[in-house]
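Possible regression after last week's pipeline update?

I re-ran a chain I had predicted before the update to compare outputs. Posting the input and the new output here so someone can diff against the archived version. Not blocking, just want to make sure nothing changed silently.
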Amino acid sequence: MIDGCARLTHMPSGLEKLTSIQTLPRFIVAENKDCSPDSSKINELDGLNQLRGELHIEKLGNVRNVALESKAGNLKGKGCLRSLTLNWGTSPRAGQDEHDELLMQNLQPHSNLKELHVEGYGGVTFSTWLSSLGNIVKITIKKCNRCQHLPPLQELRHLKFLSLEELMDLEYIDNSSRQPSSSVIFFPSLKVLSLVELPNLKRWWREEAVVESMNNSNRASTSLGEHQEQQPVVLPSFPCLSSLKIHHCFNLTSIPLHPYLEELYLYEVSEELLQQQGVMLLTMMTMRITMMMMMMAALQSPRESSTSLSLLPHDSFTASPLSKLKSLQLVRIDDLESLPEAWLPNLTSLEHVKIEECPKLSSLPRQGFKALTSLRNLRIYRCEGLKSLSNGIQHLTALEELRIRSCEELDLSDDGMQLQDLKKLHYLELSDIPKLVFLPIWIQDTPSLQELQVEECKNLVALPEWIDSLTLLQRLKISYCPRLTSLPDRIRNLAALQQLCICNCPHLSRRCQKARGADWPKIAHIAMIKINGKWVQRLT
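New output (post-update):
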């Protein structure tokens, strides 16, 4: 085993003699200055065809004689390898693209390979052998700054995980000018797709292909008579994709349909991409109408329609787009002014929502939240333009946790919210809300509340006397609220309260000193009390 050898610069010569070796997790290509008669070149891998498990080939940027060294490495003959990492190890050098492309071509692995990780490659295009890895399950391509597009991957029937990271010049994932044939299932097994730091990525295919498909889709929904004479129009759709992460791809405006997601994470993307969710709903509805028309035509002409019907997804009539989505995260979407109510009604399985650093978001939906009957966790962080939560929150009857942080314009004092239906809410956090002077009265309508945190609310002046209506409250944390001077008398009625933490509230801290403070009699019954990071009471 070669593990933890961070300063290893090259491999010893003579490796080609170990023809029965099965484990060689790392192979490091030496720099010219490190080369010596005792260092191996990549061609010494030629006869090591019993290798299995993982093989990391590092510092490929040091290969100079591509034709002599890399082709003789014979990776294609190593059918027992499960995972292969090709790491160039240095930033691409000017004029090296053709060199790297030839090197990549010569490093073609066996088709049995399950996992491929490529990092630091300096070519403009990838070798076509990437499309021929018929058993590949996971592909990660990272820091290949000159790469502009990839070969078609949609027919890799075992591919489950695809991650593209820090490909600065990538404009199109697939450079082909035509959409894939409707006779082939698009990415039949892909479950996880991650697109991270792709600042120049515009779309999946070139524009001509997208325009052609949209025009075909529009024509498909005209009339029954016209449709019977057309071929089925089925736009590419990920049939198994459950997790989609798009991070820092602010020029990306569209991707293939993804109706069966369970997790959606959008970070620093355009609002166009967010609005595509609504377009997707309309597109799927159009496709459903198209399919229903085909079914009707099939009843009239079974022989002519049987082939077309066999190409349609089996769940086309039962699955609603995004109805399986469980987690939604929207982060740093600068142009987002409101959550699109057009696609919220479909999110009936949604359990977790996080909205962070969306400065133009001013309010939450009033009607769209009615469909979110499964939502358990809602987090809103650093949305500086948010002014109101609106009454939409009251429809979240399954809500268990609500966290609101750093929303400087948010006014909770007179928003008229009525939350008596939030019978499951057990955790509430209000943090860094400058306009919070008094706790909103709707908190007393949450009978299951067990934990309340109020932090960095510099203008909060008092806790309400109705706090004793929170009969199940077990933990109360108050920190960085300098204007809070005392606790309400009725806090002594909270029999279930087990833990009280007060931190950096100067006036309140003094009043809650054990046995000496004016407010100590109100809280002496609480088993665990921490003041400014120190436990002053821990009853067993």
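Follow-up from reviewer: compared with the archived run. The CA atoms of residues 425 and 503 lie 25 Å apart. Marking as no regression found.
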